[in-house]
Amino acid sequence: MSSEFSRDQNAVGTSGGSLHATERRTEQHPVEVAVFGGSRAAERRIGVGIGVVWFATIILIAAAWWVYYEASVHELVYKPGTGIGYYLGLVGGVMMLLMLLYPVRKHMALARNWGPVRYWFMVHMIFGIGGPVLVLFHSTFHVRSLNAGVALFSMLLVAFSGIIGRFIYKRIHHGLYGRKSNLEELQQAVDANQNKVSKVNAHLMEATGIGEKLHQFRAMATAQKGAFPVRAWKFMTLGWQRRNLAIQCHQELQQAIDHLAKAQGWNKQQQDQHFQAVLLDMDEYLDAVKQAAQFSSYERLFSLWHILHSPFVWLLAISGIVHVIATKFMY
């Protein structure tokens, strides 16, 4: 592992240049890792957006509970077939119909000039969430007929399938709306994260034995040996193994940094800077290895998801049409 994480065994002995380089690095923006979702720095930048999503989710849950309660107890809320209830269902249904334009744009020659596919996919995702939400509010969260129950079940099935698809999609593409990744570039990302480790951090990893543990983790994660149940279990538990290794290495690095800080005369701020820098190197390397190792499995899962998702969409379209026709005779 010395050749992989420690280019210079005398790094600490010549710490003047290396330590200053490490300090300059920690003062700059965090190094970004070329993996599916972008980078850890990018994840930190969208923290406000995630907070807004959670806030909106809580508001929607509270509003849904109020609508359900009023419709169940007081019957003072709107009716599904008239007024605001009707228009909620109409807008939600139209949004779900417009979702079907995405596969049209993606696969049919007549739609090739309709604009970039990523924008249609964005609309597909937004309408795939907004449409079902509006339809649920349209129903006041009650099922009052067989055709309404079938339509509602189909809609929830498609929405749940879409959430799963989004989860898998993001792991084989650059970001939510980006181009598709490939295994070769992900393996290059692993090597890039390995090569960018500073000399001081590489020496720390080597001295504490962490470098060898990272090497073993990569060998285990990328190995294609074993029967299908063994490989499936490794795929499902790789994230847990990555977190367990990170926790173990975190404790060992903390002790090594403490000893090195005393030897070098670092103050508390310098010690924290070096500790965060080496942690960032280790975490980004582990993330890159994990995602590269799981890439092929996610590709196969996404292909299988496509086969299952399309019938669900057609079931939703047919049940929705039947529900609209049946409603016309009820109101």
Low-confidence stretches: 1-47
Structural class: mainly alpha
Succession of helices and strands: HHHHHHHHHHHHH
Largest sheet: none
> What is the arithmetic mean of pLDDT?
77
| Number of helical segments with 4 or more residues | 13
Task: State the helical fraction.
Answer: over 70%
What percent of residues are in strands?
under 5%
- Tally of extended strands? 0
Question: How many separate domains?
Answer: 2
- Overall spatial form: elongated
Radius of gyration computed on alpha carbons:
26 Å
**Gap between N and C termini, in Å?**
74 Å
Description of the structure:
The structure is a single chain. The protein has 331 residues and is mainly α. The protein folds into two domains: 2-35 and 183-294, no CATH class; 42-179 and 305-330, no CATH class. 77% of the residues lie in helices and 0% in strands.
Provide keyphrases for this structure.
331 residues; mainly alpha; 13 helices; elongated; disordered N terminus
Structure summarized in a few sentences:
The chain is 77% helix and 0% strand. With 331 residues, it is mainly α.
